[in-house]
Write a structure and sequence with these properties.
This protein is α/β, with parallel strands linked by helices and 351 residues long. Helices cover 27% and strands 23% of the residues. Helix 5 crosses helix 6, helix 6 packs parallel to helix 7 and helix 8 packs parallel to helix 9. The two termini are 16 Å apart. The mean pLDDT is 97.
């Protein structure tokens, strides 16, 4: 089969390799729709997870099952499926502890384009199919379905990590596709004021549609000063969905004592994050920081799909650019790398 791969750090290209083999618990799928991710960009051009050679990229897909293992009960050839970007080993001790995304070691539930070939090929392998696939609901928009792979669950996990409760005043730093879904999640969980930090007009407009109450433009001044002024004091909770290693400095300075930060931003470069000692209460301010990889699995995909089908969330609105055919994965990924100002998320629909 052919696939679009990371050849080495800083270099991509099309390769031909053997199609994946199907184990007894597993499934082989062909893609119906695909979406490149900023994580793919970090992986290739920043070398964020180390060097990878001839590894097919991609972890966001909607698929059709073409083969199932002998022990798979719930899926059959021809089924259209949602595919989670995180596909844990559900029998692991980490999964039994509630951290399935780290089954096999830290971040090891993230297998596609990390430890094995990803979804940007003619076929891809899904481990533990009964636990990691979900049925594609009839009539679901393919853009929304593809966003359930990663953007929706990652954004929602930011709200979970920040432990947003009804009436909380919340800042969401970064309103790319993950941050936009964090805004939607904060609104669903009952946040009062939601301050969405970003500068792109299309992202700001969509953030307001998703439930943000104010847009804070970092190009117009220090975001800490702006949010403290708008909120008349510290915020209760913060979701970090963008920025860099210094963003934690800003978050700590605008967070109340006893507040919580949920980070779902993939830090692709640098060795350390910056925490201001005094604003952190000299280490004793009960300002909690939780950073987490999104949970994967069938149940989560099914629940998020219910929200889409009930018109509670509209992740299809993240799609700003559409491509056709597997060969279009390459220009779509380069679009994510270059990030023109009208981009939120590209979608590739396979012929």
């Amino acid at each position: 089969m052919k696939g679009f791969a990371m050849l080495k750090i800083g270099e991509t290209g099309w390769i031909t390799k053997d199609a994946p083999a199907c184990g007894p618990l597993d499934a082989i799928c062909k893609p119906i729709a695909l979406a490149p991710c900023t994580s793919d960009v970090h992986t290739v051009w920043a070398g964020a997870i180390g060097d990878r050679h001839n590894m097919i990229l991609g972890h966001e897909a909607v698929g059709e099952v073409v083969e199932v293992g002998s022990l798979v009960r719930d899926f059959k050839v021809g089924d259209k499926v949602l595919v989670s970007a995180i596909t844990p080993d559900w029998g692991s001790l980490a999964a039994q502890e509630g951290y399935a995304m780290h089954s096999g070691g830290m971040l090891s539930g993230w297998k596609f384009s990390n430890f094995k070939d990803g979804v940007f090929g003619e076929f891809f392998h899904v481990n533990e199919a009964d636990a990691n696939l979900a049925y594609l609901p009839e009539g679901m928009d393919l853009g929304a379905a593809c966003m359930i792979s990663d953007m929706v669950p990652t954004g929602f996990h930011g709200a979970e990590l920040a432990d947003i409760q009804y009436g909380d005043n919340v800042a969401v730093i970064g309103i790319g596709p993950v941050g936009l879904m964090s805004v939607a999640a904060a609104a669903i969980r009952g946040a009062a004021n939601i301050y969405a930090v970003g500068s792109r007009k299309n992202c700001a407009d969509l953030a307001l549609e998703y439930g943000a109450t104010r847009i804070v433009n970092y190009r117009e001044g220090d975001i800490v000063e702006q949010i403290l002024d708008l909120n008349h004091g510290f915020v209760d909770k913060i979701i970090i969905a963008g920025g860099d290693n210094d963003t934690f400095d800003q978050a700590i300075r605008m967070l109340k004592a006893g507040g919580k930060i949920g980070n779902v931003n993939y830090l692709g470069e640098g060795d350390y994050v910056k925490i201001p000692r005094g604003d952190w209460g000299c280490g004793m301010g009960h300002k909690q920081i939780a950073g987490g990889l999104m949970p994967g699995g069938r149940l989560r995909s099914e629940k998020l799909a219910r929200l889409v089908m009930a018109n509670r969330i509209h992740p299809e609105k993240l799609i700003t650019h559409k491509f056709q055919g597997l060969e279009s994965v390459e220009p779509a990924l380069m679009l994510m790398k270059d990030k023109p100002r009208d981009l939120i998320k590209p979608l590739v629909v396979i012929d």
